[in-house]
Amino acid sequence: MKTVKFLAMTAAMAPLAAVAVPAVVQAADAEEVTEVVVTARRPLAESDAAALKAQRQSDSLVSVLSADDAGNLPDQNIAFAIGRLPGVGLERDQGQARYVNLRGMPRKWATISFDGLSVVSAEGRDSRFDNIPSAIASQVMVQKAIVPSMPGDTVAGNIDIRTRRAFDYKGQKITGKLGLGHVTLGGGEEVDANLVYSNIFMGGKLGIVAQASYYRRNMATENWETDPYLVQRAAAPGKTFAREFEYKNYRLTRYNSSASLRADYKIDDNNTLFASSIWTIFKDDELRDNWIVRLDQGTNAAGVAYNSDANFTAADPKFGTVYGARLNGRIDYRDSEEILATNTFGGEHHNWYGYDVSWRLNYTVGLNGGDTPVTAAFQSPSSFLERPTAVYDFRNGDQNIVRLYRTGGTTSARTQGDRVFSAEEFNTPLTSIGRVAGGETTQAYTAKIDFDRQTELFGLPTKVEFGALYTARNKKNENETYTATPASLTAKGFTVPTWGTLAIDDPYKGKQALGYTFRYTNQALTNDLVNQYINAGAAVRDMSATTSNYWKINEKQAAAYLMATTTFDWGNIVYGTRVENIKNDGRAYSTALAKYLETSSDETLFYPSVHLNWNVTDKLKARFSLNRTASRPDYDDLRPNFTYSDSNQTVSGGNPDAKPEKQTGFDAYLEYYGDSAFVSAGFFYKDIQDVLFNQSATFGSDILNSGTTNRSDYILTTLRNGGDGKLSGVELFTSYSAEKLVEDLGWSEWLGGFGVKASATLADSEVTLPAYNVGTKASPIIVPARKADLPGTSEGVYNLQMIYEKYGLTVRLAYQYRTAWIQEIGGYTMVGGVAVPSDNGDIYWDDDEEVDLSVRYQINKNLEWFFDGSNLRNQGARRYGTVSTNPIEFERFGPRYVAGVSFNF
Hints:
Helices cover 7% and strands 56% of the residues. It contains 8 helices and 49 strands. Strand 4 (88-93) and strand 5 form a beta hairpin.
C-alpha cells in the first residue's frame, strides 16, 4: 500500500470548494491509495470559500465572514474582522475599532444579534463590537437589506454573530492561541489569548462547546485639544478663536475578556434543544492628566480681553500672545467597565404538523459603567501676575502648541517674561477633589417564535414564514458623587494636596513636542486620598447628584410578521410585512420640583419589504430590494429629567416626545461568482424622514416654573425630530486568486499563492435641518434652515488587501481609508444677520487611514505561528469643527505588534 502526502490547493475564491486535490493522484496509478494527509492549511481561502457559499445561498443582501476549517476568524475582535468587508466603515477608540458604519450610515442604525436573536447593547442603540472577541464566532453575517423576520429598527443592517456549535465538528475539538506583543507608544505589553473546547457526548446526542478569551494592552496616548471655539463676532467675520488649549496625555490598560458555553441536545432527528450563555467584559483602566490654558481669560498687552470685539478685529486666531491666561490642571482616573451577558434557551423542531418551528427565550443584561475613582481640579489664582503669558501657534493644524512665559507689567500694560518649561512652576491650588461611581444598567427579556412550511402559491413552490416576538427592556442610570473642597478638607484636619504631592517622576511616555511639560500623577496615591476623604464622613460627601442623575426608561415591544418566499425557474421573491407596537414610559427626578416626573408613549409601525433574487446565469446573480425601516431614539434621549440655569436662561435634558426616524430603502446589486474571482457592484438609496439631531428651541413647558420664575421661555437644547434627508451610494467589491491563472499558463506553482481583495463604497448624504429659535419666546432669534451631511457618512470608504497563501504560509497586508465624516451636528446662532457656529459647529472626524499586517505559518497540522502588526504607519486621529482649518483634537496611539502560536487538535 502507498501513502500520498500533498499540499492542499484550495481555490481561494471558489465558493463551493474546500480542498482541490492536484493531479498528482492519477486514476491509472496501479497502486491503491489508502491514505491522504493534508499537510498545509489555507485559512483565508477556507474562510472565503465558506463565506461566499453562504452569501450565494442567502435570500437577502448580505456580506459574510466565515471561520476557517480550524474555526478561527482572522482578527482579534468582531469590529476589526468585519471592517474588512465591503461597505463597512469603522469608528475607533484609542486606535481600536469599536463601532461600525454600514454603507455610510449612522452607527445607531446597525443592530447586533447572536444566532439570529437581536440583543440589546450595554450602550443602548449604539452597538459596540470591540467587546466581542472573534473567538466566539464561527460566522458573522452582515445583513444589509432587512426581511420581515428581522427587527424593524435594523436600518443600515444587522450584524449577526453565529456562535460555534459542537455539531459543527466531528467529535472533540480544541483550538486556541497565545500571543504576546509590544505597544510602541508607551512601551507597554499586549496579551491576546483564547481557548475553545468542543465535544459530543451521549452517543451523539449532546454537544458542548466552551470558550474563553483574554486580551490586555498597556499603552499611552498623545493628545492635544483646541476646543471649543468662541462665537464669531460681527466686527471680525470669518475669524474663529479657540477658547482654550489642552494637553491630555493618557496612560491606560485596556482589557477584553469573554466566556461562553453552549449545549445542544438532539432529542431525535427532528427535535433539538439548546442553551447558551455569553459573557463579554470590556474594561478601561485609564489615567488622564490634563493641563488647560484658558486663552479667553487673558488679554493682549494693553489689557484688552482676548474674547472682546476689539481683540477679535486685531488679533490672529492662529498665532498670537495672551497675557495672564488662566491655567487649569485636572486629574481624571477612570475605571470604566462594560459588561454584556446574554443567555438563551431555545429549540428547533422539524416537521411539527407540517411546520418547522424555532423558538427562543432570552435574558440579556448590560452594564455601561462610568466609574471615576478620582477626579481633581486645580486652578491658577485671579491675579494676572500669577498666571502665565501664553504664546499660541495653531498654524500647523496637526501639531498645535502653546508655550508659557512669566507675566509682568501692569493691568493695562502687560509684559512677557522668561520662558517657563513646566506648568507646575505656576501656582495652581486645588479647587475640588472627589469620585463618581455608578453607570447605566440595561435589562431585556425576550420571547420569540418562528414557523415556516413549504407549500404552493399560485401553483409555485413557496415557503411561508410567520412569527411573533415580545421583548421588555429597561435602562436606568444611577450615579453617586463624592466631592471635597479645600475648605471641607481643612475642616476635617486633612492637608490640602497639590499637584506636586500627587506627582511621580516617571518620564513622559509620548513623543509629541510639548510647549510645556508636567509630571504624571500617582494613581495609587490619589485613590488612597479620596478613600480617606470619603470615609471621613458627610462633611465631604455630596449626595445631591444621586437623585438628579437618576432616570429610568421602560420599553415594551410586541411584534409579528408574515412573509413568503416564492421560487421561480429564474430565482425567487421574498415579500411580506412586519408590525411592531412600542410602548415607552420614563421616570426621572426633578430637582426643581423635588419629585419624580413620569412620561409615556405608544406607537405602532409597519415595515413592508420585497426582495427579488434573480439567477441571471449560473454565475451571475442580481438582487433588488425595497424596504421600510425606522430608527428609534436612544433610551437616554427619552429620559424626562431636566436641569436649568437661571443665569443663562437655558434648560438641558432629554426629550420624551422624540419620535422614530423613518426610512424607505432601495437596493440593486449584481454578484458574479467565478472560478477564481468574485465581483459585486450595487446601488443603494435611503429616503429619510423625521431626522433626529440636537437642536435648540424654546422649552415651552411650565413644569419647571417656581414662585414668580417663569422658565417656559428658556432655551432647551435636546434631541429633536427635524427635517428630511437622503442617502445614496455605490458599493463595489472584488476578490481574485491567481491560482487558476497560474495553473492554466503553466507558470511556477508558487505564483499561485497571490490574491487580492478590494472594495470601495461611495456615498452621498444630505439632511435638511429646519429653522429654529435660539432666543426666547418674547425675543426670538431664528437660525435659518440649512443642509448638512448625515452623521457617520464618508464620501468614500476603501479597503485593499494583498494576500499570499501557499505552502502553509499566509500573509495579508490590509489597508483601509475613509474620508472625513460628520460625528455630530452642532448648534448655530446669528451674528450680524449671518448664521455662525455657536462653538465648534458641526464636528467632523478627518480622513482615517489604517495599515495592518498579518502573517501565519503552519508549523505542523496542529500548530501555527502568527504575527500581527497594527497601525503600522502610526496614523493619528484628527477632529475639526465645521471646516478642516479649525482642528479641535489630534491624538496618536503608535503601532502595535503581537506574535504567538495558535493550536488546533
